[in-house]
Amino acid sequence: MDYETPLFFRVMQYAADADGDVIDMVSGNPDWEPPAALREGLSEYAGADPEQFQYPPSDGLRELREEIAARRNVDVSQVVVTNGAGEANYLAMARALERDSGSEVILTDPVYPYYPGKTTMLEGTQTYVETDDAGRLDPDDVRSAASAETAAIVVNSPNNPTGAVYPEETVRELVSIAEENDAVLVSDEVYDHFDLSGAFASALSVDSDHRIVTNSFSKSMAITGFRVGYAVFPKNLVESARSRHMLVNVAGSRPAQHAVLHALRETGPDYYQANRDRLRERVETFTAALERAGATYTKPSGSFYVLVRFDGFPGTLENVERLIDEAGVAGMPGNAFGSAREDWLRFALVTPRVEDAADRLVEYFG
């Protein structure tokens, strides 16, 4: 079987090999400090008894699952700790497809490229629903696309790459569409701590056996290398997902889970608010520069990505490499995210050099 290989690593490697100074705005690796309590948890763990260096429970440390369940107002039995949101989405999509209720997966366009890749890997078929210019998803379009063949509807809010945030009425409608078609809404909420609009609504706010919510601490705690995520399943769907997780991964990292648990318990809201404030400043700096350069762009309501279109400079891989070589700024080609924004580029605002990158783009395109 041929799988679609995301372009992220190819672009990152090209930027790393380029001559001169290149500002990396390719991947969503936060550049700020993790919570201080996370480092404390790791240091504490180094002195643990040898038995604490052995396999943890396959579905995650009980105390971590209890902490997540309490925060998300679900039963602990519904929570599976995963190898980041990547595995959480894989388990959720697999569970939707293995119910013998169709093989179609409805995705948005633009789309985070790992979703169609996972669909192919799981032998499903993709159907795309285009979002509007601001990245908003119209539930009526999803309802028109859905049918008895629909196994899953996969959405991401706050969204990568558009920065859109889906309000409560949209989320409720999406759950309703899943119920009407015996499908599963898979709601990837990994950027929930980066809602800049105040409009974000979790799919967990809707009680249903037809929705699975996935998340991770990778972005919210700036620890993409720790690989601690989770999925919240309806009670009737969790057992098979737990078994698949065990067969694929056996278990997750005990030290990483311990550190995340300590950080969850000891980190107050100020940490997350400071990161949102930092991001708001970067959005303003970067989009103001895009205005000066005469670009068209999406201003994110959440997450930390900006989609940009420069006249006469379509977002191809060739032009991304050209921008790296000639302007010293590395972004992602729009065609990596589907067909709707092929002429666009995506930039991740997770570098302290956002202002430098903005100046370089103004000089190059202005």
SSE blueprint:
Layout: H1 8-17, E1 23-24, H2 36-46, H3 62-72, E2 79-82, H4 84-97, E3 104-109, H5 114-121, E4 125-130, H6 139-145, E5 150-156, H7 168-180, E6 184-188, E7 211-216, E8 229-232, H8 238-249, H9 254-266, H10 269-292, E9 296-297, E10 305-309, H11 317-327, E11 329-330, E12 332-333, E13 345-348, H12 354-365
Parallel strand pairs: 1-11, 3-4, 3-5, 5-6, 6-7
Antiparallel strand pairs: 2-8, 7-8, 9-10, 10-13, 12-13
Structure write-up:
Pfam families: Aminotran_1_2 (PF00155). This protein is of the alpha/beta class and 366 residues long. It has two domains: 8-34 and 269-365, Aspartate Aminotransferase, domain 1; 54-266, Type I PLP-dependent aspartate aminotransferase-like (Major domain) (Aspartate Aminotransferase, domain 2, 3-Layer(aba) Sandwich). It contains twelve helices and 13 strands. The strands form three sheets. The chain has a seven-stranded mixed β-sheet, with helices on both faces. A four-stranded antiparallel β-sheet has the order 9-10-13-12, with helices on one face. Strands 1-11 form a two-stranded parallel ribbon. The longest helix has 24 residues, at 269-292. The protein is globular. The model has no long low-confidence stretch (mean pLDDT 95).
Summary keywords:
366 residues, alpha/beta, Aspartate Aminotransferase, domain 1, Aspartate Aminotransferase, domain 2, 2 domains, 7-stranded mixed sheet, 12 helices, 13 strands, 40% helix, 15% strand, NHTrfase_class1_PyrdxlP-BS, transferase, pyridoxal phosphate binding, AspAT/PAT-like
